[in-house]
């Protein structure tokens, strides 16, 4: 690929933002061959299904038009009504087939690129110099080569069909009108259907080519990717500030839940884990707050202000901190240890023996695999 202005080559795949910007400008993947193939298939199917009735209806309208009442032709007041009615009948007759073709013409291009709508006006396209440059570009030469190949393939198939179907086509002139019209519709439908076979090959080559060309044209340099990332995610200092604010907000919300705890398990000074347990609504105790160092100190301070019991169990505190999760039930393997802590605290509360002093419980059973020093 050609190098960019700063000397960097476009080696990076287009980012989602780049693809979205291209779509906003109307730059999407399109394959004319795929649309042509779809229209040929639908036209062939429409002629096979609707063709006999369509041709019979056209013949009936022609007969009606050629057998008009002479009085209507000579009456200037009735002639517009006659012609208008004939036009309405023709539109009603052709509406199903034309509607089918219109629908496929509108929706077939969406198979690759989807809908695009852009009101941007590219004035450079009106520049005759750039127009001549596009006319004699490699892209235009490639499109001309594709058109010639398509013409040769489809034309060759059409010639073979005419050569092999010559007796059948000549025989149509010896049939009566109604069978001849049905036979003609059947022949046209199958002819179009056979003509789609080479279009299958052409579309099968063109679709991958258009996809490759589209994504290659949208490739980016490494610097463009870095600039986009900076614009999208912001500067490092801004991101750091956002992260700090998010952490502060999350910590503030966590601290608001400390007063709801039933017990605080500490290390005694480096770790603190606040547990809440409501037997009627909870299957297991839930960690409502946890932290180390300054966060742990703040948890202990809030617990002291609300006179929440504090249990010094170093092994259990570290196990809860490293193996538990905020607002989640405690690990199953710590059920026994926490149950002993809660049972002891409940018993002291019942006997009115709780005070502001921490409760020391060094012998709480903590599984060996959860112990951290």
List the helices and strands and how they pair.
Blueprint: H1 16-24, H2 32-66, H3 70-74, H4 79-107, H5 128-135, H6 138-164, H7 166-171, H8 177-217, H9 222-233, H10 236-256, E1 263-266, E2 271-276, E3 286-292, H11 293-305, E4 310-312, H12 314-323, H13 335-350, E5 359-360
Parallel strand pairs: 1-4, 4-5
Antiparallel strand pairs: 1-2, 2-3
Structure explained in plain terms:
By secondary structure, this protein is mainly alpha-helical. The chain is 62% helix and 6% strand. The protein has helices at 16-24, 32-66, 70-74, 79-107, 128-135, 138-164, 166-171, 177-217, 222-233, 236-256, 293-305, 314-323, 335-350, and strands spanning 263-266, 271-276, 286-292, 310-312, 359-360. It has a five-stranded mixed β-sheet with strand order 3-2-1-4-5, sandwiched between helices. A hairpin with a 4-residue loop joins strand 1 and strand 2. The longest helix is centred in the middle third of the chain and has 41 residues, at 177-217. The radius of gyration is 40 Å and the shape is elongated.
Summary, kept brief:
The chain has 373 residues and is mainly alpha-helical. Helix content is 62%, strand content 6%.
Tags for this entry?
373 residues, mainly alpha, five-stranded mixed β-sheet, 13 helices, 5 strands, disordered N terminus
Q: What is the structural class?
A: mainly alpha
| Low-confidence blocks of residues | 1-5
* Helix content percent band: 55-70%
Oligomeric status: single chain
- What would you report as the Rg, rounded to the nearest angstrom? 40 Å
Strand order of the largest sheet: 3-2-1-4-5
Shape: elongated
Please report the total strand number as a whole number: 5
